[in-house]
## 1
Amino acid sequence: MVSGPDPQGPQRLAPVPDPEGAAEPTRAGFVALAGRPNVGKSTMVNAMVGRKVAITSDKPQTTRRAIRGVATGAAEQLVLVDLPGVQRPRDALTERMQRRVERELKDADAALMVINGEEGVGPGDRWIAALLAAAPVPVVIAVNKVDRLDAPRVITVLSAAAELGIADDIFPVSARKGTGVLELRAHLGALMPASPFFFPPEDNSDQSEAQLLAELVREAALRRTFQEVPHSVEVVIDEIDRDRSGVTRVLGKIWVETESQKGILIGAHGKMIKQIGTAARKELQRELGVQVHLELSVRVRKGWRGDERALDRLGIE
Ligand SMILES: Nc1nc2c(ncn2[C@@H]2O[C@H](COP(=O)(O)OP(=O)(O)OP(=O)(O)O)[C@@H](O)[C@H]2O)c(=O)[nH]1
Ligand SMILES: [Mg+2]
């Protein structure tokens, strides 16, 4: 069974006791990432954490759950809440994603709005800016994907971002290349309130192992499918068996909504599912640091995206 994220939203965990005699008071808090789909929020969380905790893809609406990535420095800890991209909801799944964003914003210590520098500031960004203006938290803006822009274009987008009127601090960054990420992280750290850490410093994320592995399999499927198929894919990990020979056996199911999607995911002579399995296995091995034997099957679950009970079971709050 996959255990989902905590339904209560961001919860302050039992604080880590200060080591004896520690003179430096620490800062810690929650930073909610908001932005249109595909602007690079998850890539940004991974860059700040320094590890892959959230999957990414060039398909919009990759992120479905609020995943917390933990970035711990010497005296400050950022709990980065990676959120689904904000857009108009179209079914029970996207409605839940939207409500989650609004809830997380209320509970955060700061919001980081991410803008796609390649596309500039559009109506979708203005809509999110209005949402953020109403939230009782300081807002910082990151203009992302500057690796794709020349200097004059960066300046144009930075001033368009300033005109949104919700943030004094605007950072040009490339989450993919890492440019500007440390500066942004330090700035966010300074905004956090004095507080003990919420997570042990060695933790990178609040996801269960089964959830992270399921997401890595989903990423492999998203990257190879198009149109409606990536939106219809969900993955459930049923078993993780570590045997004595050092090989870990992982059993997973890929859900789709129709027989024809199932056909696409399996592919002619099983070619597609084999490719997905090979790519996912590499990611699982990187994550677990052991050899992995991955067994995947594809199952049709008609209309799971509109099925509130299925969404509950999947931990999509
Ligand atoms: N060139 C470039 N591409 C980037 C950068 N950051 C992210 N991307 C790409 O943009 C695409 C979307 O990235 P994600 O991190 O999945 O975007 P997201 O905002 O989390 O998307 P949703 O979860 O769907 O809301 C991926 O193909 C990333 O590789 C960047 O700094 N430069
Ligand atoms: Mg994302």
## 2
Amino acid sequence: MKDSIAVIGTGMMGGAIIKSLKKSGCSNKIIAADIRPKRLQELEKMGILTTANNLEAASNSDIIFISVKPSDIGNVLKTIKTEVDGKLVISVAATVPLNFLKKFIPKAKIVRIMPNVAALVQASYTAYCCGENVNQKDKKRVIELLNFLGICEEVDEKYMDAITALSGSGPGYLSIIIESLMYAGLKVGLPRTIALNSSAQTVLGTGKLVLDLQEHPAKIKDMVTTPGGTTIEAIYELEGSQIRQALMNAVEAATKKSQLIREKLNV
Ligand SMILES: NC(=O)c1ccc[n+]([C@@H]2O[C@H](COP(=O)([O-])OP(=O)(O)OC[C@H]3O[C@@H](n4cnc5c(N)ncnc54)[C@H](OP(=O)(O)O)[C@@H]3O)[C@@H](O)[C@H]2O)c1
């Protein structure tokens, strides 16, 4: 018998998780819960079971994803606490630590994850960390689900702020890079669609090269840099810019913000 899955909160990330599970062939029963009827109607059209009642969703499921904003998570946990003992509860909420979640649902098996929006196209990098009562068998069940969203990796919880800043928010930074490359294409006379497709696919392909070949990015850079050729002209320009420092500063600022939000949440 396969685990049945509830997803509570079906906005950007909860919706991406549901769509990705369906699209990638996950045949487990899925039930979606949200306070916004319009969100549920859209999912019903895709054949997903829905409810406006979080407790009902939790009681009918073995694994419960919670994908509401960090400020709403306490309320959701209070509502479902009687129905989650011994079940896997997977929190998607940025900044909210395992210890905080455990206060509300001490007998649940809690997993905290940080995916990114690329889950929509089964290309998320999802970091996860587990409460102490999550055993190897539970982890296998979690990994099986997270693999439907892209790739996943277990991390120590102390890295979650940095992960949130790097890969959780990362699609935002890389969109700026793709947009910049697209404009560069326009500047050198490419039609708009060709400029956009070639930029986006090149970012995607470069990531795939690093991952599939398990090569350092510097090696990929060397692979395309012919002495006296075109690439070195461009790299020379880039090295004179502040691009590396800008990205490092951006991720550091987002990491600090993640820490600050937790302090403000008082968790
Ligand atoms: N978006 C990302 O790229 C991303 C990446 C990684 C992690 N996350 C995390 O994922 C979580 C969800 O983010 P999101 O961007 O998907 O937010 P979102 O689009 O606002 O979705 C949250 C949904 O949950 C609903 N909701 C609020 N209170 C609820 C309750 N008590 N019961 C059931 N549903 C409730 C919201 O309704 P209302 O809109 O009416 O409040 C909304 O439909 C956050 O904790 C965030 O930190 C997001």
